[in-house]
Model the fold of this input.
Amino acid sequence: MQNDLLHQANGESDIFGSHSCCTNERGDVCDTISPMSNIVFDENTVKVCQEATVLTHCVENVLSSVNKALTNDREECKLDKDDHISEYVACESIKMLETDKQTSLTCVKSCMPVCSSEGKPEQAPCGVNGCNIVTYQEKQSIPEVNQTGTTKKYGPVRGGRTVVYVHSDEYMQLCDAMIRVPGRACMVHRLIEAYGLLKYLCIVPPSKLTREEILKFHSEEYVDVLERLDRDGEEGYDEQAQRCGLGYDCPAEPGVYEYATSVAGATVTAAQCLMEGKCTVAINWFGGWHHAKKDQASGFCYVNDIVLGILKLREKYQRVLYIDLDLHHGDGVEDAFSATSKVFTLSFHKYSAGFFPGTGSVKDVGFGKGRFFSLNIPLLDGIQDQQFFSLFLRVVEKVREVFSPEAVVCQCGADGLAGDPMNSFNLTHLSLGRCVYSLLKWNVPLLLLGGGGYEHANTARCWTFITSIAAFKKLPEDIPDHQYFTEYGPSYELAVTAGYRKNLNTPEYLKDVCRKALGILQKTSKILAYNEVV
Done:
């Protein structure tokens, strides 16, 4: 059953289904011509030469699969149009497949393995944009992995990506001690470890930020309060601390400053790795605290590590796109960049009366030079995977077309998953996984962060699944035996079961949200066009 669900999430080889070149129903042909496009030739794969006939037939099978997918999608579009967002998103996959049909003709031919006279496989670079082929020569730069899971050097992992995973045991234990998500960090890391994903990642320890680095965003007064609380605990709590938002949501507890500087340091470390070209994807699952303001803690967030990470990326990249998938509006990040056109903030979140933080209307678009460079997608209770991803894809691809980001930061809050105590959306791990996979195909530096997620087992499932997508590694559906195995009952499977909360997101409502979002992006496009002329 899990394999069927994964195929629905794009049918990718190794991640969404092994050797699926003849059964692919979605996604880029270039990424799904297994076993060709991801073969690393060495002595263990010389046998590929003996299967040349099978591989030759695969060319015809790929094209046949694309034609079949096109036919199926056209029929699906007719049947399910009312279940999607009308003409805006119902048939988005048809456009992708039409393009990929022509791409596959070039890609399959140039990726075809050829046996030399000595019986050793040879391979020419594919040259097709987006193809994740790894040649024999490229294998030499794949990082060696030691017994602890760390790498001896940086280089492309299978699928053409190098993935940095910011982690240390000290950092994990520090995050586990925080009162709002106790034990979550260790639970996430242990599941990633249990699935054997660490050997596909470059593990980089985080660095703590200095006071001066924190002050690049936060006010001096606020940092003084955090330092005092870190030193004196509750004895240092006063009216000033209360004004800074340190109370019920953000308890003034000892160690808070060390925790905040460590989380922010981990996100900045990840950003630094991207800037230095050490990786194409960087992950800090213990970051993503998007509510903290310049001079105030908010919503469990003491320091806005996301803002500090984006400021670091801005030292190299002119245009940075921030995407927020958390159940809650990414208000702190939006506020920080609402007056600049250099950072585009895009948030998909629940928006209803009385729901924290109470911001994130589609009418909130920034101001000054940043007007129309903030975009909010307000959603209602009960949204489902297909609706969420369809809307995401339609909007985010238009943002890409208009804004042309040089780097992307994606906050993958998991509190919208079914089963979370927030009890709002009906999402599973597949919706967030498909969103991240679509961003990976852009081939721009990508920083992945955590965020909300208060049903720890489902959060660990989701972020482990996304880690496997980034590492181009398919996972078994059964949870491996490890320290937290019993927490994943009664199914003991990787899949998050979809919820049954009443869906208030009617096709008409989603169509209206999409129409307004695209209207805002038209204004963004006009501003950028005018700036180029000027």
